[in-house]
Design brief:
The chain contains five helices and no strands. It is mostly helical. Helix 2 crosses helix 5. The radius of gyration is 11 Å and the shape is globular.
């Protein structure tokens, strides 16, 4: 399994900065829970572990 160093993780930067999701994570989030995206929920509000989903889709 490929791992991303934490300091380079787009998810970590997103969580720290509360910026909009990077495009690659937006696509991952949309695949993981389309209804939450439609409702405008952030991944943490929807209870989605994006890091896990991202890693499992990008091995």
């Amino acid at each position: 399994m490929r791992t991303i160093p934490l300091e380079k993780s787009p998810l970590l930067r997103y969580e720290l900065d509360r910026r909009p999701l990077p495009l690659e994570l937006r696509d991952t989030y949309a695949m993981a829970d389309p209804q939450a995206v439609e409702q405008g929920l952030r991944p943490d509000e929807a209870g989605i572990d994006l890091a896990f989903v991202y890693e499992s889709h990008h091995q």
